[in-house]
Amino acid sequence: MTDLVTLGQRIRHYRTAKAMTLDQLGAAVGMAGSQLSLMENGRREPRLTVLTQMAGVFGVAVNDLLSDAPPTARAGLEIELERMQRSSVYASLGLPAIRPSRSTSDETLEALVGLHREIAKRAREAIATPEEARRANTELRQHMRTLDNYLPDIEALAEKVVGAVGHTTGALTHRSVSRMAENLGFELVHVGDLPHSARSVTDLKNGRIYLPPASIPGGHGLRSMALQAMAHRLLGHEHPATYADFLQQRLEINYFAAAALMPLTQSIEFLSVAKSNRNIAVEDYRDAFGVTHEAAALRFTNLATSHLDMTVHFLRVGDDGAVYKAYENDGLRLPVDVTGSTEGQLVCRHWSAREAFTRTNRTTEYYQYTDTPEGTFFESTQTGTTSAGEFSITIGVPFQHSKWFRGRETTNRTRSTCPDENCCTRPGSGLSERWSGQAWSSAKLHAHILSPLPSGTFPGVDDQELYVFLESHAG
Hints:
By secondary structure, this protein is an alpha+beta fold. The chain has four domains: 1-71, Orthogonal Bundle (434 Repressor (Amino-terminal Domain)); 76-92 and 107-124, no CATH class; 148-255 and 455-475, Arc Repressor Mutant, subunit A, CATH 1.10.10; 262-426, PAS domain (Beta-Lactamase), CATH 3.30.450.20. Helix content is 47%, strand content 12%. It is built from 21 helices and nine strands. Strand 2 (201-203) and strand 3 (208-211) form a beta hairpin. The longest helix is centred in the N-terminal third of the chain and has 20 residues, at 106-125. It is elongated.
């Protein structure tokens, strides 16, 4: 059934077209005019028998009453105004709702609706505060945990798109990615002047996807950028209405890109063989599909529970111990703040994610068993470096699953009692006695976590810079 506001407008339209009053229509269908008034104002849902009677009185079909289309342009404005006045954004202003009367001109209605549209637009484009961003990200992480980090619909879509260009084995080539774009009606264009706030730009008008220069260091990431841009179209994304929508879309496009670069069927075959040989290693999975270590580790979390029958955790941690990304469904207690957010929190110094930074040889994965209050976990960690500093990527599983992994014979073993402060955060009594009150330090701000995003149609992207870029390349 159509929404009640539109239904009420259509009943009023057909009643006035018949030059009938509410009481006259009420007499015809056996109902009080006051009750019909509530229906016309979208405050009461009529029974199907009453709608059938009304349709007979008006000489129209019941489906004419139930149509989603406003009966007139003015009715459309009144319906839009009613909906917008019911929104949480308008309610937060504490202003009364306005009910247009017959004497309200169309120009007044258009102005009111225009103001509401602008209010809604500015609410969508509002800067996401650090707290809002962290809460939304926490809710999304917790939701993905209930799904074991697995999205079967996107898996199927990725396999279909990859199969359409004939890719069957090995690393997905740039040529195959270009053909995927062509199948969607887009051309991949590499430029050196992308907006500073954008990783890629899709020109819907001219059918182009703009990417950084193909010669940039680490150019393998360009495949992922192109696939993410295509995913917005394939998944039918619309402009995000909230920051939570933006995060959900970002998760979905990242998932699609990973599922295309490391397709489900090929990945399961590769990982199943590794499991049967008791030789699972993220570095082998990474090299087989020509992706980054982080991409392979994250992709492993998508498949481990649903297809390999094991629970798992993932961490990306900075050299200061702060969490950038995290996921778990194996019971590991992640460090969290009072909101439940883990981003920016410090992991235990005894976890593999931080122990790996102490190694001299970092060319291969570091293996370790960690005893925690929640049990013993086997972890594999690889470190890397960016312009922002060092980081580590960790995949871990409960002890009972360690038998499937390379490195299980390691003698590296630590004990963690975090979140107990005596584990690794509280200085020993000797140190405290010597230095308490004798030192002063200036804290280093975790800008990547606390910085608000620039406002714009897409959170984090500067609209003015974006549109100037598109204009310069439109010719």
